[in-house]
Design goal:
The chain is mainly alpha-helical and 156 residues long. It is built from five helices and four strands. The chain has helices at 11-40, 48-76, 80-112, 130-136, 139-155, and strands spanning 4-5, 9-10, 120-123, 126-129.
């Protein structure tokens, strides 16, 4: 009798399901991040630190989507090496995602309490203080939207 997933399903089916779900979710998140970044690229309403943070998040989600696709194909083709690589890279992706989440939260709280030239941006003749706008965003919303994806990945 082979290894089981969730007590009764074969392990390969579990890898297929998890890899497919992860591919759909992270692929959609990566697409959304890159679309939002392209939509906001014409506007100067993003500070350089925030843009760097968004690029990192987009890169991690894109890499995670590609990695899950490799795991899905490896499970379909019954390639144990591809599945082991998928598992190893999942752990690496998790640690990178945690590091980027910490960086994003630190950047958010730094910008939230700053004043000066880093905060003020001008777009179409309108001057906007981003630090004041960050202060309007509820802290709980920022924390939840950064922690929930990590918890979902840890549950897989």
């Amino acid at each position: 009798m082979g290894a089981k997933f969730l007590c009764c399903l074969p392990l390969r089916l579990g890898v297929l399901v998890i890899a497919f779900i992860q591919f759909v979710i992270t692929g959609g998140a990566a697409g959304l991040v890159w679309w939002l970044l392209a939509a906001a690229s014409n506007e100067s309403q993003l500070t350089q630190k925030l843009k760097a943070s968004i690029y990192l998040i987009g890169a991690v989600y894109t890499a995670s989507a590609l990695i899950s696709l490799v795991g899905f194909i490896g499970a379909l083709a019954k390639k144990l090496g591809a599945i082991r690589t998928y598992l190893f890279v999942l752990y690496v992706t998790l640690f990178v995602q945690i590091a980027i989440t910490v960086y994003s939260l630190v950047s958010y709280y730094r910008l939230r309490n700053e004043t000066g030239t880093d905060c003020t941006v001008t777009s179409n003749g309108n001057s906007v203080n981003l630090c004041e706008e960050y202060a309007k965003i509820p802290q709980a919303a920022v924390i939840v939207t950064t922690i929930v994806p990590i918890l979902i990945q840890m549950c897989e």
